[in-house]
Design a protein that fits this description.
Layout (H helix, E strand, L loop, with lengths): L1 H18 L8 H44 L35 E4 L5 E3 L4 E9 L3 E8 L3 E8 L1 E2 L6 E2 L4 E4 L12 E8 L19 E2 L1 H5 L3
Helix pairs in contact: 1-2
The structure holds zinc ion (ZN).
Zinc ion binds next to loops.
Length: about 220
Amino acid sequence: MDVWICVLNYLLTLKDTFHTPTPPFHTAKHEMLGCIVLLQYLCVENNANNMKRILSRILLALVVIVVLGMLIPQNLKMPVVGADSNSYNHETFWYEGWGTSIVHKGIDVFARRGTRVNSATIGIVLCTAEYGKGGKFVLVLGPKWRLHYYAHLDEITTKPLALVGHGTQIGTVGNTGNAATTPAHLHYGIGTLIPYPWRIDDAPLGHQKAFYLNPIDYLKGK
Ligand SMILES: [Zn+2]
């Protein structure tokens, strides 16, 4: 409706400009024009208010979604079937001198090639690919807006957008990517979309600790 008012207003203004030698005359036409300008102003005001209301609702919905995601329990499980706390080095998270990565932003769980890898949490698969240092990898969005990264897989057995649970196989242990010269293992890392700035310290790339969590903190006793 306001579009038509704008068009009509514009046409009337044009008409005044080009065809009335000494405007404005106080005629019925000009009163109508005044009404239209007022209506147009009210419509614009209304639209601004509507837009503010829509934006505040979108913001509220986003806050609710983030809070709900934070409330989902993580209940993390060892992703490599048959592995335990002896299957990984407890000191390698943020280990320095880790080649071009500078530090090790996860843990390496050693197992025989082909060993089943399950999702460590419930979640949704965001990405599966074979790329760069991680070789064949799977990225899962889990509870609390955390990203679970499973790398060096021998095989990928899931697809993007698949819903996964603790028992859902996502691949098998391998040594693809830059692990070609090391025994088969799963590189498992946990990232967080909600930053934890209090974890930042003076270590190399210490500022990134706000976004990388130590999987061992959640695997203890599992
Ligand atoms: Zn690793």
